[in-house]
Amino acid sequence: MMMNKQWRLLASFFCLSLLIPAQAQQTTVTAPAAAVSQAPAGLKPFSAKYQVLRSGKVHGEAERYLKPWGQGFELGYKSKISWLIFKDERHERSRFVLKDGHLQPFYYQLKRWGTGPGRHYELNLDWTKQELLTGKEKAAKPLEWDKQWLDQLSYHSQLVLELAAGKTEFSFDVLTRHGDPRSYQYKVTGEELLSLPAGQLKTIRVERVGKDLDKQVVAWVAPELDYLLVKLWQAEDKVEQFDVQLQSYQFN
Prior knowledge:
Distance between the termini: 41 Å
Structural class: mainly beta
Strand order of the largest sheet: 8-7-6-5-4-3-2-1-15-14-13-12-11-10-9
Number of helices: 2
Order of helices and strands: HEEEEEEEEEHEEEEEE
């Protein structure tokens, strides 16, 4: 059970979700009408591959991507992990538009299979009707609408936009996979020169902050690569759960 729990934590954040354009089942969700004439810093389309390590050993691989979709963008990932008898494979994506400097997600999906039962989560956000629908059944979620809502993937891109704008502290209203709102806080805590499988890179270190955190999350992004995520480390009760490192990348 502990082994399953540890690797389930991987997808809770790196689900940056969190990678090459997914060829999964198509959806009929239509992007809201919001023109994106030019991708700003931090929203440059890319594809990137990563190694997933634990205790210095490689246990899997992952890919992330950002691509244009309709009038907005799709941010996605896929990962494949194997550890002893435990196997986990998942695909995740978020579709959003950019409006007045803030992302508006309108579709989120996560599909997972491997050891244990499979999972399928969906969120549909209608910004005109101010309506949140959850699951494949598209059940209405009775919540007061929040104009700052982001999903489990889109908040990563929002963080990058704010980093590119020079901010050093961040607060996000994030919907869980079940559509429940949560507040996430992050802070820039320094700069580091990292040696990674992709090479040596100058990075900015960003950490999750707040009281009584159940997980310790540290992410490194490279300003010279349009703030691309190059390393992600997560622990629970100060015990390492995973270490994700950039292996290769391509800007499209």
